[in-house]
Design brief:
Blueprint lengths: L6 E2 L3 E7 L6 E7 L1 E2 L24 H5 L1 H15 L6 H23 L15
Parallel strand pairs: 1-4
Antiparallel strand pairs: 2-3
Length: about 120
């Protein structure tokens, strides 16, 4: 798929990762090498930024406060010796996680149906 030294519209990609310098470096390689400028988009998972005095929120907390709320309540109830409420917060937490996973699945696999590509050179 790399097509050697030929250039053209990319048909394939791969993600390279190099940690030789001690700092992880990731890059996307296109094949064949682009013959001109093309627009493309990628979806990736970003590491969550640490909270601090200057960074008081992050995207996961902003977009999914129910996960944090129900998780915190679930953890707090045994500490407060209010065990009869644990089941309520566990159910709410599990639903929030399931909703988040369902949305991720829709985002990841939206668009055309997945298909197996023939890389053997015959049809």
């Amino acid at each position: 798929m790399w097509a050697g030294s030929q250039a053209g519209k990319p048909l394939a990609y791969t993600i390279f990762s190099d940690n030789a310098s001690g700092t992880p470096i990731k890059s996307v390689r296109l094949g064949p090498s682009p013959g001109s400028a093309y627009d493309y988009s990628i979806m990736f998972y970003k590491k969550i930024d640490a909270l601090s005095d200057s960074n008081t929120t992050e995207q996961m907390l902003t977009n999914n406060p129910d996960v944090y709320l129900y998780g915190a309540l679930l953890e707090a109830e045994p500490f407060l010796m209010n065990d009869q409420r644990v089941g309520l917060w566990l159910a709410a937490f599990e639903k929030a996680i399931a909703d988040l996973q369902e949305q991720d699945n829709k985002d990841r696999h939206s668009g055309s149906a997945m298909r197996v590509m023939n890389t053997g050179g015959y049809y």
